[in-house]
Amino acid sequence: MVGIHVEVDWVVGRTSGRGLDDGRSVLGRAERFLEAEDDSGEDRAARRAFTPTSDGRHRLNEKLGVVHRVNRTHWVMPSKETHWPLFGLRVRTPRLELRYPDDDDGVALAELAARGIHDPDWMPFAITWTDVESPQLERNSLQHYWLLRAQWTADNWHLPMAVVVDGAIVGTQAVAAENFAQTRVAHTGSWLGRAHQGQGIGKEMRAAIVHLVFAGLGADIADSGAWHDNGPSLGVSRSLGYEENGEDIVMRRDVADRQIRLRLTRERWERQRRTDIEIEGLDPCRAMFGAV
Ligand SMILES: CC(C)(COP(=O)(O)OP(=O)(O)OC[C@H]1O[C@@H](n2cnc3c(N)ncnc32)[C@H](O)[C@@H]1OP(=O)(O)O)[C@@H](O)C(=O)NCCC(=O)NCCS
Question: N or C: which end of the chain has fewer CB within 10 A?
């Protein structure tokens, strides 16, 4: 957040009839001017010479986001979190951070995926998005992140958190729900770049997302699913207390195959709840999840 204190009449007088950028640059100069001159009599005289009309003042103040305080003014530059608070959402464990991906993180995730997530002879996903060649795979990935953001509603949301270890993006830990306010059920999905698999990161990032789901959002159930032969994914679920909850027969590439459903209840999660996981920036997002 950027805050600049100036006397508004002086600035409005200087910026009447000009664009927003002009206004900001004059605000910047105004701040320096006031600091340097410490409100001398000469400066007060200069400011009086630029008294605007009341209409012009209001129009410009709307554009600049100027907030009056008696005869002083506080100008606040909105950040992207102001209107899309998910950008400020973080979940931290001692080993990693989950953060809502901005466009740069989306590019890093797309490139990571293009470097490989699994043996090409085997498919861990129900949607075969990794069968696409680069550079189309990267474009599809970016469109996927943009689509999830654009389609977000409180009744149907899908949160693809970037997984960050030692400052590097290593994968995605997603959680999604429909009608969460009523169902209190969330579904998770995840992947890691191949170089980052088999080191306990998958388990740690799932622990982080279920902490967000139960401790943060107040869910009753976290669901997951994996092909019958996906040892690491089933291993993550089992080691965190999920129980098998049936199976589905689903197309995998061009062949029908078995997908195992897994379920973690709040009661089961409470038994091994961790005390070293922190959630940041959730409160302004609660309504977006239907979790008020
Ligand atoms: C699934 C995935 C996210 C798991 O992450 P990971 O970091 O590799 O897994 P971890 O190192 O945290 O280990 C997971 C657990 O599974 C166990 N495990 C690993 N391989 C296993 C196997 N072949 N059979 C059974 N258990 C296995 C591990 O021992 C560990 O359990 P433990 O902590 O009780 O010992 C990661 O492997 C991945 O991205 N795979 C490719 C994409 C994918 O399959 N996504 C999920 C789609 S459903």
Answer: N
Average pLDDT, the chain: 83
Task: Note the pLDDT tens digit of each residue in 80-97.
Answer: 999 999 999 999 999 999
Structure tokens at 148: 């999830």
Is the CB–ligand 1 distance for residue 201 below 6 Å? Answer: yes
In eight-state DSSP terms, residue 233 is H
The angle formed by the CA atoms of residues 178, 118 and 156, to the nearest 5 degrees, is 10
Of the three residues 77, 99, 124, the one that is the final residue of a domain is 77
* Burial class, 154, CB count within 10 angstroms (exposed 0-12 / middle 13-18 / buried 19+): middle
Q: What is the Å distance from ligand 1's center to 36 Cα? A: 61
The residue among 33, 58, 77 that closes a domain is 77
CA of 230 to the centre of ligand 1 (A): 8
Tell me which of 30-39, 158-167, 243-252 is least confident.
30-39
Based on the domain organization, do 270 and 135 belong to the same domain?
Answer: yes
206 and 272 housed in the same domain: yes
Q: Does residue 109 share a domain with residue 23?
A: no
Q: pLDDT of 3-54, one tens digit each?
A: 333 232 222 233 333 333 443 443 444 344 334 334 444 444 444 443 444 4
Domain that holds residue 31: 3-77
CA of 236 from ligand 1 middle (Å) equals 5
Asked if residue 226 has its Cβ within 6 Å of ligand 1, the reply is yes
